[in-house]
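Archive maintenance. Older records in this collection stored only the sequence; we are now back-filling the structure field for every entry so that each record is complete. The fields below show one back-filled record exactly as it appears after the update. Entries are processed alphabetically, and DUF4112 domain-containing protein is next in the queue.

ARCHIVE ENTRY
Title: DUF4112 domain-containing protein
Organism field: Mastigocoleus testarum BC008
Length field: 168
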Amino acid sequence: MSLPPSKFSTIDPNSKAGALKRLRALSRILDSAIVIPGTGIGLGLDPIIGLLPVGGDFLGILLSAYIVVEAARLGAPAGMLAKMVLNIILDALIGAVPVLGDLFDFTWRANDYNLKLVEEHLQFPGRKRDRNVWFIVMLVAGLLLLTIGLVSLTVMITSFLVGLFTGK
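Back-filled structure field:
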């Protein structure tokens, strides 16, 4: 015989530690996994995959968006989620510019900044948590539209340059 559903949440309060551990690992992999010897400068997967034409920026935005979604699941307020999305948008827009964008990707660490925002939020759990699901859905949809736009722009620029050099 099964027990009736409880009116209280059965989520373990220590589950935030596991989520934070995953976010720290992902942020480190994306922004500073490899330290350049003798410099102390970290290099992550995000600027490397950003070098791949078309799909690199798309994949980078999707991986960064996971941090935002996880922050929303941890109860982050809408204002903080918006700031996190702005960090990703800045990274994506400037990162889409050939050469300059690639250099920018090596210095701007949107995932590290976003992780710091999540950690700050979790440090002060007494703050008001407004979990507007539609706001979160709109943020993620906006990131998806931005990604599609960047991929389209990259394809158009690439086909223009190919046509310019090949005369077609």
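Update note: The first helix runs from residue 15 to 31. Residues 16-166 form one domain.
Entry marked complete.
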